[in-house]
């Protein structure tokens, strides 16, 4: 349990990079919250109640966007590349290439009866490789129970 709390603290105070899909989700949340804020103001709410409602709506927006950016430590796991390479591949989807001669796939893998996704690069010159950190670990994002 202590490790989980440490992971939550690490995740809560870390800087998070966003995928384009996550950024778009955040834009939509902001737009929906703004739309609701405008609706509340247009319907004659005033005073302390208006202020509290708008502040609460800002909190909704903040926490929803933080949830997208942070992802839960339970939703992200890290496994060493050697272990990931042994997992059964359920699906591969082609993604745009950024390097000449390299094909990038979104890969769905099965691990402990759960489905996770990660990125695989296939390069004619160097073979296959997963995105890894400096110590050879691959980040897998939870999709669903299989």
Outline the secondary-structure elements.
Layout: H1 2-12, H2 20-42, H3 47-70, E1 76-80, H4 81-84, E2 89-95, E3 102-111, E4 114-123, E5 127-130, E6 137-145
Helix pairs in contact: 2-3
Structure description:
By secondary structure, the protein is an alpha+beta fold. The protein is elongated. Helices cover 42% and strands 31% of the residues. It has helices at 2-12, 20-42, 47-70, 81-84, and strands at 76-80, 89-95, 102-111, 114-123, 127-130, 137-145. The longest helix is centred in the middle third of the chain and has 24 residues, at 47-70.
Q: Calculate Rg over CA atoms.
A: 20 Å
Proportion of helical residues? 40-55%
Task: Give me the number of helical elements.
Answer: 4
Number of DSSP strands?
6
End-to-end C-alpha gap: 25 Å
Sequence stretches where pLDDT stays below 50 over 5 or more residues = none
The secondary-structure class comes to alpha+beta
| Net shape | elongated
Strand content: 25-35%
Order of helices and strands: HHHEHEEEEE
Give a quick rundown of the structure.
With 146 residues, the protein is an alpha+beta fold.
Q: Key terms for this structure?
A:
elongated, 6-stranded antiparallel beta sheet, 146 residues, single chain, alpha+beta, 4 helices
């Amino acid at each position: 349990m202590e490790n989980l709390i440490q992971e939550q603290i690490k995740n809560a105070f870390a800087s998070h990079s966003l995928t384009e899909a996550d950024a778009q989700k955040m834009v939509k949340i902001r737009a929906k919250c703004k739309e609701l804020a405008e609706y509340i103001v247009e319907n004659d709410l005033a005073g302390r109640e208006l202020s509290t409602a708008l502040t609460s709506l800002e909190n909704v927006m903040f926490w929803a966007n933080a949830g997208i950016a942070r992802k839960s430590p339970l939703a992200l796991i890290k496994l060493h590349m050697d272990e990931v390479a042994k997992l059964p591949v359920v699906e591969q989807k082609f993604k745009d290439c950024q390097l000449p001669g390299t094909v990038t796939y979104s890969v769905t893998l099965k691990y402990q009866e759960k489905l996770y996704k990660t990125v695989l690069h296939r390069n004619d010159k160097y073979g296959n490789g997963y995105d890894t950190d400096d110590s050879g670990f691959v980040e897998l994002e939870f999709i669903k129970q299989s």
